[in-house]
Amino acid sequence: MNTTLKQLQTMTGTSAGSQLSAKAEFDSFKMLSDSKVDVLCRITDSQAHSGFDIATIETRNFYLNVHDAYLNELKKMESDVSTLKQVVKWQHNQIDYNSYYNAFLLEQVSESEFEEIAASFAYETKEIDDYELLESVRKVISLTEIEYPPSELAEFFRCDYTKIVEAYRSLTSEVPSLAHMIPASGLLSRVEP
Amino acid sequence: MRSNVVCSSIEGEGMELQCRKFFPRPPRKLPTGTIIYPFTLSIYGIATVTKTLESQKSTWQTTSMVALDDSINGESIDGYAEKPLGKPVVRKGTGRHKASFIVSKAHCFAHVQIGTRDSLQDSKKKPALL
Questions:
Q1: Whether A111 and B84 lie within 8 Å, measured CB to CB
Q2: d(Cα B33, Cα A152) in Å, to the nearest integer?
Q3: CA separation for the pair B53, B43 (Å, rounded)
Q4: Which residue, A53, A54, A135, A182, has fewest beta-carbon neighbours within 10 Å?
């Protein structure tokens, strides 16, 4: 469409100095109307002629393609931030425990006092779905770019060491350097209680 | 018997641990209620059974070595003890380096998490399976 900016402003009733705030503009777009015509316009300088080119997309399609993709990306980022927060808390807990352990080594606290303090840090392992664990392990390694030894991730996820080894086994195609932490099969079998 | 294969393990009522980088980790509570004190030995870790289990049978991993003087070594050894490990003694370890020596007088388990550098390099030299 070959239209000058002035003609466009006349058509839409807007001026260069429109005072609509960014939020109000967004809110007005959010209300998808029932009108037969509901489009978003993109106005660009024309390379082929003097004047402007106008491209349009139906507002509904814009929402489906761009808005939803943006929301999904936001959700993924929120999930990544949540994972990193957990990693930070885990490391902080470790540093905290180490400082008490140092006090024990320096004989500032007795063994029985230290055992009491240590009991407050003790955790129990829990069952975790194998697929969920695999995805979580993949995410932690991808976000932190650290190839943790299996025992450390077992502590982070509070699960059995063998589960992390199996997750690593599944991830070696993506992260080949994990292979040196995986035992030959059959070597890692727990004694039944 | 000595092993440096990943996940080879030893268990004993007493153990000597040697390494140049010792890393204690927060304790864990077993379903039985026992609290265990995990640790990691890094930079050429060695763990040796100094006192055997009374039952002579492993209680953690079925393939654990349990005889007196059985040992494992690796770049990273992971394990646990049923009592907090005490102060290390620093003395000459291997070659030109000093190392920390820690004695566990309680039930202890240790396994190789990452093999020695020599065994890692050997595994890289092996031809690919056809």
A1: yes
A2: 22
A3: 27
A4: A135
- The answer to whether B5 faces chain A, any CB pair under 8 Å, is yes
Contact A152 B59 (CB under 8 A): no
pTM over cut 0.80? no
Residue B18 distance to chain A (closest CA, Å): 17
Nearest 5 degrees, angle CA A163-CA A164-CA A166?
A: 65
pLDDT one-digit tens code per residue, A54-101:
898 888 888 778 777 888 888 889 999 999 999 999 999 999 999 999
User: Which residue in the set A121, A186, A189 is minimally distant from B27, CB to CB?
Assistant: A121
- Close Cβ partners of B87 (under 8 Å, ≥ 6 residues apart): A105, B102
Report the C-alpha gap between A6 and A9 in whole angstroms: 5
Closest to A38 measured CA to CA, from A57, A18, A22: A57
- C-alpha–C-alpha distance, residues B82 and A86, integer Å: 28
Q: Which two tokens mark B74? A: 């690796």
A25-34, long-range: CB < 8 A, 24+ apart: A29/A59, A32/A59, A32/A60, A32/A63, A33/A59
Q: What is the pLDDT of residues B56-105, one digit of tens each?
A: 777 777 788 999 999 999 988 999 999 999 889 998 877 788 889 999 98
Contacts of B110 in chain A (CB under 8 A): none
Phi, psi of A86 (to 5 degrees): -65, -40
* Pairing, β B28-29 against β B35-51: antiparallel
Tokens 């204690």 belong to residue: B24
Q: Which residues of A touch B58 (CB under 8 A)?
A: 191
Task: Find the largest Cα–Cα distance for chain B.
Answer: 50
